[in-house]
Amino acid sequence: MPLISLRNISLAFGGPPLLNGIDLTIEPGDRLCLLGRNGCGKSSLLKLIAGEQRPDGGDLIQPQGVRIAYVPQEAPPELAGPVFDVVCGGVQEAAALLAEYHHVSHRLAETHSASDYQRLEELQKGLEESNGWSLHQDVERLIQRLDLDPEADFVTLSGGTQRRVLLARALASQPELLLLDEPTNHLDISTIVWLEELLVKEIPSCLFVTHDRAFARRVSTRIAELDRGRLFCWPIDFDTFVQRREELLVIEESRAALFDKKLAEEEAWLRQGVKARRTRNEGRVRALKALREERRQRREKLGNVKLEVAEARRSGQIVAEAEHLSFAYGDNVIVRDLSVSIQRGDRIGIIGPNGAGKTTLLRLLLGELQPQSGTIALGTRREILYVDQLRAQLDLEKTVIDNVGEGSDYVTWNGKPRHVIGYLQDFLFSPDRARSPVRILSGGERNRLLLAKLFTKPANILVLDEPTNDLDSETLDLLEELLLDFSGTLLLVSHDREFLNNVVTSTLVFEGEGRVNEYVGGYDDWVRQAATRTPAPEPAKESAPKPRPKVEKARKLTFKEGKELETLPAQIAALEAEEAELHAKLADPDFYKGAGNAVTTVNERLAALAIELETVYTRWEELETIKAESE
Question: CA 34 → CA 216, 449, 575, distances in Å?
Fold first, then answer.
């Protein structure tokens, strides 16, 4: 039985309909990825399924008792109180008991009050009767895994931390269908990987909106795309969807061109004047009117953002050079003994868990903070453009135009004046939208606006702190192209693994206790290199210096390892062949006619194959390294 079914659902807010007679069925076991351009209605569809939005028309069918949990992009304004209480709110049947038990037990540790002891016994009995102990452990486990302070006041938390609390709250309810709106925003990479594993192995079904291509590839079993009010479902994996969508767009553009050509020919025929009116066929005139109406109703595909940085004159060859750099906030060591040289044209990614100090490292490398030990030498002719993840450079109460034009009707771009309305249209803001206050914009629109505001300023150093949040896949692709074409220097903080893989040439990785190590390449390159890298020894204490270990000669492969190395290429080839066969099966439309649960089985096998291939590749590189060092 489906978890939920939508039939002929329509929804509009004064303009063209966001949802125009869409149908959708979510079955148990589905992990459905919902894609679409910014502002196309994805969040509205999630709210509708969650019961927070009513459709203008159509039917929403939901069997009684199905548990649905929803994690929105923004925290509901009515949520307040300690984090523990907010997370417990997801477990409605025992929320009050769990929250009170947590607070009374903490209070007892200080007061030892007889009345508190009595109340604690009453709460224990109530929890036993409602299976509350298991729920209590689940709540504590989620709070710990998402690195939350259970006593913190929810309303004082940052937006990113509030989103982690909302995720814990939703997971605590053990939903049969989990709705996630941009779940990876503000999560660090380790938490994203944990969430991927949780969704694949423990959550029965989910519907999620994401811009994170690696996340979509790992989690989804089906793809749905919302495009100009219509919903298209694809029972295929993410990579196959991307390929087929490109093919369909080419076909659609070709058909539209042929239609427009025919319409133009018919209009020319009608304008031939008296001669045409004498000989014309009334049926042909009626057909022309139908063509006009069809063209009027055709909704054009939303255009692409025109991204281009106004580049400044070249900086010096050396942008920044750090030697034995260290910095700490009290006992919290952010950077310890870092030496790194940043050259003009480098594209450097910065990876680390939330709170590790990535933004602090940026400020050190830019000269905004002084190191507590070591030196930082800054290059010459540096013109910096900084895109911060909190979008603090935007005034929410001002209009889009005022944020970019700063009181003028014109902006200067590459030394030439441009009218601010025309400039904003390059970033997909219509004249009406450009006159709106920033506070009503979606997250993706605010991100586009910040890029529009900053890209008017010439720069030879781009500093981007989580620039991919809320951007749709088309804009992400264009931003990648811009960064690859940019001739200056790039410093990029991001949790988007594919974005890092496609853009950066090296990465600085926070690896604990202030250690920041540099690796060649992007995220996947770091994972491969780190797997074979021997951990650095702990720094020696001054009171008890440790002697340096003797340098051992490189060992040779054992006989068993040599035989293993010989078999690995064939093993890799067999795994890759099986992977290609399964992808081909998923790409065949006939496979879905009687597939049943076979689609889920194939996708699960593909996920397992990815892990097996990564393990075998790592082992092959490890043995090849030992062999090369011994020769």
Answer: 9, 24, 30
Sort strands 373-378 and 416-419 into parallel, antiparallel or unpaired.
Answer: unpaired
pLDDT of residue 545: 39
In the chain, ranges of CATH 3.40.50.300 domains: 4-237, 318-532
Q: What is the pLDDT of residues 126-135, one digit of tens each?
A: 666 656 556 7
Angstrom CA distances, 224 to 23, 42, 227, 247, 499, stand at 11, 10, 10, 16, 22
Within its chain, how far is the Cα of 143 from the centroid? 22
- Closest by alpha carbon to 217, among 445, 23, 501? 501
Q: What is the pLDDT of residue 546?
A: 40
- Please tell me the class of the 559-630 domain: mainly alpha
Is pLDDT at 295 greater than 60 in this prediction? no
pLDDT band for position 235 (cuts 50, 70, 90): confident
| Dist. CA 380–CA 38, nearest whole Å | 39
- Name the residue type at position 464: L
Amino acid identity for residue 149 in this structure: D
User: What is the rounded distance in angstroms from the CA atom of residue 323 to the CA atom of residue 501?
Assistant: 27
Asked if 308 and 482 touch (Cβ cutoff 8 Å), the reply is yes
Neighbours of 413 (CB within 10 A): 17
Sorted by sequence, the CB contacts under 8 Å of residue 421 that are 6+ apart come out as: 401, 431, 434
Say yes or no to pLDDT of 273 above 80. no
Query: Residue 194: pLDDT above 70?
Result: yes
* CA 414 to the chain's CA centroid: 32
Taking the domain 4-237, which CATH number applies? 3.40.50.300
Among 95-109, 386-400, 463-477, the range scoring the smallest mean pLDDT is 95-109
Instruction: State residue 370's pLDDT score.
Output: 92
Tell me the residue length of the chain.
Answer: 631
5 by DSSP, 3-state: which?
strand
Question: Cα separations (Å) of 471 from 144, 238, 464, 474, 498?
Answer: 30, 18, 14, 8, 14
Please, where in the chain does CATH 1.10.287.380 lie?
Answer: 559-630
Predicted confidence band of residue 112 (pLDDT cuts 50, 70, 90): low
Q: What letter represents residue 20's amino acid?
A: N
Where does the pLDDT of residue 333 fall: very low under 50, low under 70, confident under 90, or very high at 90 and above? very high
CATH architecture of 318-532: 3-Layer(aba) Sandwich (3.40)
Sheet holding 57-61, edge to edge: 19-26, 4-11, 57-61
Strands (E), 471-611: 489-493, 506-510, 516-520
> How many whole angstroms separate alpha carbon 191 and alpha carbon 197?
10
Please determine, for residue 301, whether its predicted confidence score (pLDDT) is greater than 60.
no
